[in-house]
Specification:
Elements (H helix, E strand, L loop, with lengths): L1 H44 L14 H8 L5 H19 L11 H13 L1 H10 L8 H22 L19 H4 L2 H4 L1 H24 L8 H23 L6 E9 L4 H4 L5 H15 L6 E3 L10 H14 L2 E16 L2 E12 L5 E6 L38 E5 L22 E9 L6 H7 L6 E6 L9 H16 L3 E5 L5 E3 L5 E4 L11 E9 L10 H5 L2 H23 L5
Parallel strand pairs: 1-2, 2-3, 7-8, 8-9
Antiparallel strand pairs: 1-12, 3-4, 4-5, 6-7, 9-10, 10-11
Length: about 575
């Protein structure tokens, strides 16, 4: 008798322990919801550079919602705001590095508080009887929650000029098989699967507490997202194996000048800056190269003397060159005090010193490159680190290179280029981007056409020192390469100078002799390009855009209408 009752007694004790744990965890949530929400927000921040704990992104959404379990709407909204505020204060800490008295902390707090409204809205939308009901209802809730997260990322990328920085899908930039889904759905597909899986785990935990005698009740909750994840990984592995043949290369030299932002603003240092830049570049061109890149803001001023030095450098080394500098054009209707439009521009010069093209940056940085509402609210300019402003460009531009180069020794183990194809010039089409333009999925898509060979981003993150900003920026760039199926070259002022292949893999990173990605220097890499006669295969995302994201927006809109209807009927308490 004692033998037969032993297992039942032990099982009963385990159930009692689980019940006590349930009670204790519930009390902790009730007493410390906001503190735990802040911890969950910080946990989500660790999924991004420089922490790079990608697995935290799969857990954090569930933890944030757990803090709002069975709360009223207003409480859920506040909990979501606390989690979001902690997340953005942590991931955007690099705003404090801007070398302007007073502005950094104001901008850091204001931007973080504004962006925290998005996770607050997400928690508010899902709050109530979280993860409960029948299996179909719980599964639908998880799918709807993932769609709502994506919808808010879509809105954040567009509202008030947009700020698509650190989408949750970007945290998975090192998981190459997973992020290949971005070639179909954009980064929003990665965000969706991460949040969906997290909500399924939340439902599984809730089911375990509600049915402690059912040991495997949690398995039915995660089966759907687990199958979807498995399919994504299988398809991603197949895409990684199906790489284009790399039989030809373009030899590209990247110059990283590492100019402090305070020196960029000091006109008295312009001559010294330019001299150092020319010396560093001349040293980098001791080996023949096809294309020379300078980053954004490398050139202090584009005057006649600097123009002569640059074109002399180009003609001497017979090299194509792309660099960032300011440009100005006369207004259509100029006035004595306002004659010119100024642009943040990228210039392309051919080996003979002729101008090949100019690209004017289209998406400017609010409060960094222009001041919104400055005419209606002149006092706003006192809260910004700039005194003037740029005019946005009105079109995407491509630069076309022609290469007539003899075979050279390859340094990255790529095959020697066949001599038989060197008789005719190879036309190489480059789509230039400036600064954080490469964080906008829908914008970058407009720059790539059927003949684009690769994207080039010229950027200056010297505003933010040696912070996580550079790595967070590079993570976004990796997703843009996958979405459009083209390599992306990044030439940066102080890091992270690198190139990313069409599958989102960071192939090579500039490092100085001490092993750091920061500091002045240069590097030359052989960038694979399609062999002559081969055609580009554009991704589904490039052809159809944010179809997946817009479906999520429409789904979330319906959820909002249902929630409003429920409030009117009194089924939701304020």
């Amino acid at each position: 008798m004692a033998t037969s009752c032993g297992p039942e007694l032990a099982f009963g004790r385990n159930i009692a322990k689980l019940a006590r744990l349930n009670f204790i965890s519930g009390q902790l949530l009730l007493r410390h919801r906001y503190f735990l929400a802040a911890l969950a927000g910080f946990g989500l921040a660790t999924a991004f550079p420089k922490f790079n704990f990608a697995g935290a992104a799969w857990v954090a959404p569930a933890l944030i919602l757990a803090c709002a379990y069975r709360t009223q709407e207003r409480t859920a909204l506040r909990i979501g705001f606390v989690a979001g505020l902690t997340f953005y204060l942590t991931t955007l800490y690099w705003l404090l590095h801007i070398p302007v008295t007073g502005f950094p902390i104001f901008g850091w707090l204001a931007m973080s508080a504004f962006l925290a409204l998005y996770p607050a809205a997400w928690v508010w939308l899902l709050a109530g009887r979280l993860g409960e009901g029948g299996w179909l209802r719980r599964s639908a809730w998880g799918l709807a929650g993932a769609a709502a997260w994506v919808a808010l990322e879509m809105i954040r990328a567009r509202f008030l000029s947009g700020f698509p920085w650190n989408n949750i899908g970007t945290s998975q930039w090192g998981m190459l098989p997973l992020i290949q889904i971005a070639a179909v759905t954009g980064v929003y597909g990665v965000s969706f699967i991460v949040v969906w899986f997290s909500l399924a785990m939340f439902s599984g935990v809730v089911a375990m507490f509600r049915h402690p005698t059912s040991r495997y009740v949690w398995m039915s909750e995660i089966i759907l997202p687990l199958l979807a994840l498995l399919m994504i990984f299988v398809a991603g592995m197949a895409r990684l194996r199906n790489r284009p043949t790399e039989t030809e290369t373009l030899r590209v030299t990247f110059v990283q000048p590492d100019i402090p932002q305070t020196m960029i603003w000091d006109a008295g240092e312009n001559t010294n800056r330019f001299r150092q830049l020319i010396e560093l570049t001349s040293e980098s061109l001791t080996n023949a190269t096809d294309l020379l890149l300078w980053p954004e803001a490398a050139l202090p001023e584009f005057n006649a003397a600097n123009y002569a030095s640059i074109t002399n450098l180009i003609q001497t080394h017979r090299v194509e060159m792309i660099f960032g500098a300011d440009d100005a054009t006369e207004k259509a209707n100029p006035t004595p005090g306002d004659r010119y439009d100024s642009y943040n521009a990228a210039f392309h010069f051919r080996p003979d010193g002729a101008l090949g093209g100019i690209y004017h940056k289209r998406h400017l940085v609010m409060f960094g490159e222009y001041i919104p509402l400055v005419r209606a609210l002149p006092f706003v300019k006192w809260f910004t680190p700039i005194t003037g402003g740029f005019t946005p460009g009105d079109r995407a531009t491509n630069f076309t290179l022609e290469r007539r180069a003899p075979p050279r020794h390859e340094t990255n183990n790529l095959p020697e280029r066949p001599e038989t194809v060197l008789g005719a010039p190879a036309r190489i089409k480059i789509a230039p981007l400036i600064c954080f333009e490469d964080t906008f999925p829908h914008l970058v898509r407009e720059y790539v056409d059927d003949n684009t060979d690769f994207l080039v981003n010229l950027t200056n993150n010297g505003w933010f020192g040696e912070s996580a900003s550079q790595w967070q920026h590079a993570a976004s760039a990796a997703l843009r390469a996958v979405e459009n199926g083209v390599p992306l070259l990044r030439c940066c002022n102080n890091g992270v100078t690198c190139w990313i292949d069409a599958r989102g893999q960071v192939r090579e990173i500039f490092r100085n002799p001490t092993g750091s990605e920061y500091g002045p220097g240069f590097v030359t890499w052989n960038i694979p390009i399609l062999a002559r006669g081969e055609s580009h295969t554009r991704t589904f995302y490039h052809q159809h855009g944010d179809w997946f994201g817009w479906i999520c927006v429409a789904t979330t809109g319906l959820l909002m209408l249902l929630r409003i209807a429920r409030r009117k009927t009194g089924t939701i308490k304020e």
